[in-house]
Amino acid sequence: MTAGPEVAGLRRFLTARPGPTEPAVPAERCDLCGTEVAAEHPHLVHIAERSLKCACRPCALLFRDRPADAPAGAFSGFRTIPDRYLRDPEFVLTDQQWDALQIPVGMAFFLLSTGVPDAAGSGPSVLACYPSPAGATESELDLAHWSEGVGGGRLAALLEPDVEALLVRRATRDGTATRCVLVPVDACYRLVGLVRRHWRGFDGGAEAWGHIDAFFDAVEARSREVPR
Questions:
Q1: Which of 34, 80, 166, 201 is most deeply packed, by most CB within 10 A?
Q2: 120 near 180, Cβ under 8 Å?
């Protein structure tokens, strides 16, 4: 398993915020037109490179429904990341199904990448990524293990390739059941940034887990139940 190529394009999520005596971070700008954007702003994903670009809302609208292969000059191959959060309260994932994925931590996100064809060259690859103190670590999944576990649920059937992910957190220490939420892919990299900034020592420390718990609570609160 290796750090994914998208990490280089996500440094804005992975860099620590300045302290009280450090210089302020320059305002973020749209990577297409240069307009200053708010802290909460849309993102585009480059399908082949799996990198993210900041966008103002007018520029994001240009790529919202545009096919990835549509001609668009210097910005061909981009798609706007949608803003939907869905949860499935009936989702169940057994220990055996999780262990078959060979993910060494208790949280990960899963996406379909059309920029990385599967082994047969007939469709998108299923990628599993998990946050670590070094950034996002990824691996390509065995389709059988995917289909029998995370990929067998109702959320997986709704997943948009390249721009959305299934974010899974195994049962927590306080007894919370396994969570699975369909989220915009940029939300997953916010989680990666939290882990990288706050993780201390072997087990992360109380501060890191406080940020992780708050992140998942916010995602859960923002999500709506998947239609039957």
A1: 166
A2: no
User: Which two tokens mark 48?
Assistant: 């082949």
Give the residue extent of every domain in the chain: 8-80, 86-225
d(CA 142, CA 118): 10
Which pLDDT value is given to residue 13? 42
Closest CA to 165 of 149, 187, 183, 143: 183
Q: pTM (2 decimals)?
A: 0.79
Quote the pLDDT of residue 5: 44
185: closest CA among 38, 79, 36, 65?
A: 79
Termini Cα distance of the chain: 36
Taking residues 51-73, what's their average pLDDT?
Answer: 76
Which of 34-43, 108-117, 135-144 comes out lowest in average pLDDT? 135-144
